[in-house]
# Entry
Amino acid sequence: MSSTGTGRDVTVLIPLCKANPDKEADLRKCPTVRVKHVIFDCIDEKETLMNYVQRLKKVVKENDVSVVLPTTDLSTFAHAALARDFPHIPGPSVESCYLAFHKPYTRKHLDFAEMPTPYDVLDLDSPTLLQDAEKALETVGLPAFVKSGTATLAYGLKKIESYDDLKGALIDFKTMRDEHPDFMFAPSAAFYRDYFTEYLDVKKYPLALCDVVLVEPFLDAETLCTMDGCVVNGKLVHWTITDELQYDGHEAKFTSMLGPTNEPQDVQTRMWKIYDDIMAKMIECGFNDGYTNIEIFKMKDGKLRLCEVNARGSRLVQGIYRQVYENANQDYVYLAAGTGLVPATPPPTGRHGVAYMAKFLGHQERPGDFLDFDKIAQLKSDPDVYISPYYKRDDELADIPGSAGCDICAVVAYGNNRHQMMKKLVDVLRLIVKKPERLAYPVSEENMMSILY
# Structure
């Protein structure tokens, strides 16, 4: 394809990702570089992170890879390691990605919110774990949240109302670790240990070699927003703010995303101040040529508190970007990194979008038991919906204790206003979901307005 930018030819490696023809087609439309080859690579079932990175180094050498595109928290580590070992590959440091990934260290080093959140850390292998748990609740109070120090996708997340609740949650974490030692989303220090020993200063960050969980207060927030931006050639660029859907009565009551934000300008300005302070620390620790999104709670008293930091883009937000903002493609940031091209803040189009994660609770069957994949295929021609399945219809789904549900696909719906986009989402879910009673976060005409306003 012709290029209006630098004309640089690139071979792109996408770690921890199954082959995705739609994504490859999008990458080939990048206006600033020519994508000559896209390599999708999945981790093998028994590989540790270090084993995987060593194998990827061979892929880089044999295929002359010049760009690594991370799409998940875990893949940021592969990207950062390859950027360290291959000077021609632009990317962030392992340390900066680690501060975003490891929740206790995020709290310790990156919590620059208006009201920092108290927390405590529990080592699952501590001989005094139950006594440590009592002290943790003295520190953070009740109700509290317990979550894995490293896991993604909300595995193990639980609201704690009592000491007995916390003991039960710790048993779940131990079960998860012991029964699924190779499961990369479990709190498995063994999976990361060799990698961290090689690429991270483990004397500075000793928790890297431990299986730990984070205990922090349950934050009964009014809203949750996500700030997106990138750092290219050392320059920080703001992108957008998106809101998250709220489901009162759920332990984790915020999920999925809406764009553009409804927050007033003064609140947005305060949020960007927190974002800038966090990113200053990230850049100090080596973050560069990458994308970030940072989630901020707005409490009922108006104070802003940090939820989490992610050293990569969000596939949900990218779905919203397809129609809600102009020239807003997170992947293109990585393709153009190292060329001297710093992206601009994307302007809004006037459209609205909602990106919804279809999470299902209970014993996991096959994706095809929950979703109608034939109907999903038919909706490809509908300009007001974009569906991204994470699995094929007959794939196996892990049944992990303590899980907040299994994500099977993302559904993005568009409209000229928030009401119109949400009605479209409801219509699509009615069409494709076979077992709506199993949805972790049901969306209906009845609750639509209460979610939106």
